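ok so for the tutorial part 2 we go from a plain amino acid sequence to predicted structure tokens. step 1 is just haveing the sequence, like this:
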Amino acid sequence: MTAAPATPVTAPSAVPTRAWAVWVVGLVAYVVAVFSRASLGVAGVEAQERFDAGASAISLFVVLQLAVYASLQVPVGVALDRLGSRRMVLLGALTIAAGQLVLGLADDVATAVFARVLVGAGDAMTFISVLRIVSMWFPGRRVPVLTQLTGILGQLGQVVAAYPLVRALDVWEWQATFVGAAAVSVLVAVLVAVALQDAPTATDAPPVGLSQVRHDLAATWREPGTRIGLWTHTVTQFSGTVFMLLWGYPFLVVGQGLAPGTAAALLTVMVVVGMAFGPLLGHVVAVWPLRRSSVVFAVVAATVLSWSAVLAWPGRAPLALLVLLAVVLGTNGPTSMIGFDYARTENPAARLGSASGVVNVGGFVASLVLMLAVGVVLDVLTPGRSTDYSLGAFKAAFAVQYVVWVLGAWQVLRYRRRIRARLATEGVVLAPLHQAVAARLRGTSAYR
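step 2 — the prediction. this is what the tokens look like for a chain of 448 residues:
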């Protein structure tokens, strides 16, 4: 809104072919990172057999990997501003390759945990680096849609993990499969080294001292646009992420009594809705950049209402209501990407990496906290060490979400007020939303 946009390119109406080629290279790197992130999840049974470990130990792999990912976002963002996207994506691919190689050769839990830490670290370097490429190569109005497409198409890595990887484990077994996965990451690193470029015009960031790094990071944190991006990511991402990654399937099968195939279909609905909703949302954000928070509040309200209906329903909820919940949760991931758009438009290009890193922390920290909180409540309300959780226990556990929703929505509202007050001092006073919408439908403007 007020800071210089992060796009240093005076872009013509037609985007150069080179820009699309660079984006595809970055996207391929992100797809492989997502594939590596999800690879252990689909090999859970084989991992238990290979390492002679229980389900809790395998769950630790996932939680620890996400914790590493979240904890590295700010340091990676700072490094991204200094080193550029090409170097960070290259380093991420090589780190992931090392992690997959160690996992393929590991025969004990400790070594496997170290391997997943490496994968989480490499994964942490990839996504925000690719987003920076989008901001540097494309005009501002295209960035929201391409940001959504990057997030959506990146999830093809989960598809590759769910099908070809499982098949590879059946044919080649553990070691050959993960060594092969490491080789794929090495090939990506070679592709990045050859074809990826930070920006249309090569610009080497001047070396800066530690004091300047601290100054820039403090400036990033003080910017209200960074804060609203952080809380936007927090309040919109966590519910869908926790449902998809860990507790949704048990809730549907054990708590709601659905058949496993039906539960899997509902999770698939979430993915399909996200893929359809993302580009549409990106277009809305591009056309209505000053109304992004209204979209955030609408999605949060829909999420809260759908969860409230499911949790308040006496006994098991009807299938139609669970389908509605899945549809609404499918919009959460794309909406969380609005947080990165705030980081892009409210910070200068030199701080884009650190701002994106700060934003990306929010949703993953909230997701980790909720994953642990749901598990604790289920254990407290379930006698002994049984995993036969009751529907009442699940409902009490998922009620923890309301704390995050209230806190996150309040913070988004708080920083929106600060940004709009700053706009008002510059002569930009937003008309009420209904007036702006009515004017747009008439083909006019609500502003002079």
